[in-house]
Specification:
Elements: H1 3-8, H2 11-15, H3 21-43, H4 47-83, H5 98-133, E1 137-142, E2 147-150, H6 169-178, E3 180-188, E4 191-200, E5 205-212, H7 214-249, H8 256-288, E6 295-298, H9 299-309, E7 316-322, E8 327-330, H10 332-348, E9 354-363, E10 367-374, H11 406-416, E11 420-426, E12 430-438
Length: 448
Amino acid sequence: MASGDAHELTRPQAETPRFGMRLWLTGAFAAVSFITAATVYIFGDNQQALLVAVLIGVLAGFLIAVAISHRVSVLARAAGEMAKGSFDASLNTAGVDEIGDLARSLELMRASLQESFGVLTADRNKLAAIFDGLTDAVIVVDYEGPVRFSNSAAARLLGKGGEPPEVVEPQLRRAAEVGFAAHPALRIGDRAYAMTARALPDERAVLAVLRDRTDELRRELAEADFISNAAHELRNPLAGMSGAIEVLQSGAKNNPLDRDHFLNRLADDAERMKALTASLLTLARVESRGAAENEVVDVAIAVRDVVAAVDPPPRIDLIVDVEQDLAAAGDPTLLRQVMIGLLTNAFKNTPPPGSVTLRGRHQGVGEVVLEVIDTGTGIPGPEIERVFERFYRRSESRKQEGFGLGLAIARRMVDVMGGTIGAESVLGEGSTFWVRLPLAQPSPTPIA
């Protein structure tokens, strides 16, 4: 209701002649007295006439009381609805007596409360939307224990009865006692959360915010492990080069055979450092790269280029089996590098005589699967999930050349293309490494 409309409700008090409740009641009693007197006069001064007069007077008083009480009860119901928070129904403000004044006052209060509650409801909905949009869990807990408020992100942390996780309760108690508490990493289930809690003394409650740090901590551990492993891998060739130089400086350079031997060692270690540095740079570039802008890749053309780029070892057969008109959504350069890496890895772990199969096929209605299947030594079950970790080399291949970065680089390249990579193996029988990419419609001018 507009403020002008609200002011209009007060005008009848000043502009319209008013008949108060006292005048109404005086008139009512006068009417009853008149009726009584008239009845006695008409029917005579006897008991029957007096009884009829009393009955008529009671009936008239009852009707007047009903009329007044009905108006009051209507206002009482309206006040009750407002007390419950309902402000939609307007009140009847007719009447120029005290009850009419009360109705107009209640109507003004209703309109004002409706406007105020509308603003409060809009603000509350905005805050609720903001809190539900947060990725951090927000919880307000009473000093006595019950959760008063929680957003959507906090729902998975609360117990079945809506209680806060047991592990955060010491922090909540501390915040209630001293005003503030924090913890860098609380474990809740299989996740780690950073928690800050602040007391709300006026509300007799504690506000707690929990931020999921699981992925962040994993990255920190992975980076620390990466640096440690990279330093270790670089230390070995550096130590070999340092040792060879010391031996040459101590006099071995004067012996042609010793000189050639240690120079060859220096060359091998330098080449190893060069290969490791190149792998680290490749991994760093791929790690820093966001999602690729995928293109339509003709898988048959890509596989043909991959096969041309690799040289199978003696007595290792390379079998190619790719479905016709197979197109994947991906980056052609990254896909070639991934498949060359998988084929090279398969050749390395397949003793002769043996075979490696490169297969491409549809899977379901929306995926392309590329598989590299070897007849090699296989991978122990506990190691399958770790072969894609950086610097991890499985037990059977630790004596071979390599740094354990090839599969880690391949996994990141597949991630960039929006696909998945994995492995299956039977120890002693061979392994299958697979890459799944989104299916694409073949292009008139395929890119590969």
